[in-house]
Structures are given as structure tokens and as C-alpha cells.
């Protein structure tokens, strides 16, 4: 039975999500501030965390940093902060999804199940190094290697580049990119994708990632 952490200072939200997630046969751990949530993460084997941003003691952003400094588990942000900058910051710090309050509990439960399925599938054996031209992607360390230089990637940058390098030359729609990188099958966040593509071009070289107008993006093989 997967262990799910719900961290939110609004107890009614924690209780509501607990009802829906326990109905899906998940084991729920509750925390009402960031410090308590982090203590649970240190003590328990948590498979996925649902994290609010505005919490006392340790806010959600810092909690995400602490989680990502240790190990990988899916992180879903639920927050009343609706600005694009807040959503991008959450994703850049390592959140896998960003859900705006008020939300539909059934949608959150569906996203939890989808993220856990993806995580399970990614644990299957795979090729550790992807190479396209002079680019190499180390999937164990989540770093890009170009011309002998190691280039650090954020989680979102890594997921998008991994998708491109698995099938160079293929055109990926924004919908496919968003679903792969953020595990979301809902609406596409165009601004978030544009930010990630721009940063990847800075790191790979602008010649690698080509915009296919009206369709999406593809990775060119310049080997």
C-alpha cells in the first residue's frame, strides 16, 4: 500500500484529501506545517508528497528543496498562489505537478495514481546514457555532458531533454511534452514550456532544439 504524505496547514483540506485517497487504498500521513512534514519524510518511507506552499515553520518551497536534496519521490503542489511565477518556481524546484486551490479531490486522486504509475514504470531497467551528436544525457545523475563539460539540469529541463533525446528528429507537441515532464494530462501551460525550452537552448546550443511552427519542437541530430 503506497504511503502518501499530505502537508497543509488547513486541516479541512488534509481531511478531505485523506478521505478520497484512503478510498483508493493509500496509507496517509498528515502534517500541518513544513517541519512536521520533513520529520515524517525522514522517518517514514513516503512514496508521494502533496505539499502546500504557504505553511508555517518551513514553507512548501523549502520543503521541496529539502526533499530533492535527498531522494526522488513525486511531489504534487496544492496552493492558492495562482501567479505564473509561483507555478514556474514550484516546477523549477522539483515539483512534478501544481494544482491550484480550490481543487476537485477526485482530480487530485487521479493525479496521485498517475504519478505513482509513472514512477513505477521508470524504475524498470533502462539505458543510462543517451547520446545525440555531441550531447550526452546521464540519466543516473541527471546531468547533460557537452564537449566534456557537465551541465546541471533542473528536474523539468531533464525530463524534457530526456524525451527529445529518446527520439531525435521526432516532433513532440506541447501536449506530449507537458504530459511527460509534468505528468499532467490536463491543459498545457504554454508559458512554462517556453521557459524550459529557452533554458535548454542556452544549455545545449540553439541549433539543437528546433521549433516546428504550429506543431511543437524536435531535437536535431548534429552528429
Spans of at least 5 consecutive residues with low confidence: none
- CATH fold name of the largest domain: Rossmann fold
The largest sheet is: 5 strands, parallel
What share of the residues lie within helices? 40-55%
CATH H-tier superfamily of the largest domain: Response regulator
What descriptors fit this protein?
43% helix; 2 domains; Arc Repressor Mutant, subunit A; four-stranded antiparallel sheet; single chain; alpha/beta; 8 helices; Rossmann fold; 223 residues
Topology record:
Blueprint: E1 3-7, H1 11-22, E2 27-31, H2 34-43, E3 48-52, H3 60-70, E4 75-79, H4 84-93, E5 97-100, H5 105-122, E6 129-132, E7 135-138, E8 143-146, E9 149-152, H6 155-166, E10 172-173, H7 174-182, H8 190-204, E11 209-212, E12 216-219
Parallel strand pairs: 1-2, 1-3, 3-4, 4-5
Antiparallel strand pairs: 6-7, 7-8, 8-9, 10-12, 11-12
Helix pairs in contact: 1-5, 2-3, 6-7, 6-8
Fold and architecture overview:
This protein has 223 residues and is of the alpha/beta class. The chain has 2 domains: 3-122, Rossmann fold (3-Layer(aba) Sandwich); 129-219, Winged helix-like DNA-binding domain superfamily/Winged helix DNA-binding domain (Arc Repressor Mutant, subunit A, Orthogonal Bundle), CATH 1.10.10. It is 43% helix and 22% strand. The chain is built from 8 helices and 12 strands. A 5-stranded parallel β-sheet has the order 2-1-3-4-5, sandwiched between helices. Strands 6-7-8-9 form a 4-stranded antiparallel β-sheet, covered by helices on one side. Helix 1 (11-22) crosses helix 5. The chain is elongated. The N and C termini lie far apart (46 Å). 31% of the residues are buried. The model has no long low-confidence stretch (mean pLDDT 86).
Amino acid at each position: 500500500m503506497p504511503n502518501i504524505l499530505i502537508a497543509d496547514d488547513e486541516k479541512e483540506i488534509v481531511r478531505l484529501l485523506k478521505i478520497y485517497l484512503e478510498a483508493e487504498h493509500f496509507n496517509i500521513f498528515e502534517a500541518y506545517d513544513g517541519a512536521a512534514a520533513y520529520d515524517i519524510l525522514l522517518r517514514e518511507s513516503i512514496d508521494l508528497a502533496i505539499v502546500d506552499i504557504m505553511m508555517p515553520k518551513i514553507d512548501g518551497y523549502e520543503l521541496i528543496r529539502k526533499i530533492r536534496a535527498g531522494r526522488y519521490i513525486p511531489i504534487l503542489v496544492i496552493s492558492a498562489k495562482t501567479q505564473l511565477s509561483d507555478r514556474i518556481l514550484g516546477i523549477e524546484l522539483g515539483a512534478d505537478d501544481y494544482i491550484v486551490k480550490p481543487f476537485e479531490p477526485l482530480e487530485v486522486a487521479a493525479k496521485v495514481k498517475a504519478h505513482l504509475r509513472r514512477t513505477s514504470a521508470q524504475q524498470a531497467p533502462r539505458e543510462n546514457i543517451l547520446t545525440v551528436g555531441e550531447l550526452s544525457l546521464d540519466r543516473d545523475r541527471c546531468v547533460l555532458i557537452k564537449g566534456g563539460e557537465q551541465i546541471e539540469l533542473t528536474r523539468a529541463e531533464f525530463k524534457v531533454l530526456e524525451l527529445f533525446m529518446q527520439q531525435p528528429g521526432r516532433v513532440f507537441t506541447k501536449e506530449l511534452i507537458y504530459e511527460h515532464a509534468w505528468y499532467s494530462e490536463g491543459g498545457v501551460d504554454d508559458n512554462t514550456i517556453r521557459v524550459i525550452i529557452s533554458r535548454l537552448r542556452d544549455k545545449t546550443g540553439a541549433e539543437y532544439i528546433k521549433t516546428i511552427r504550429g506543431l511543437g519542437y524536435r531535437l536535431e541530430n548534429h552528429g
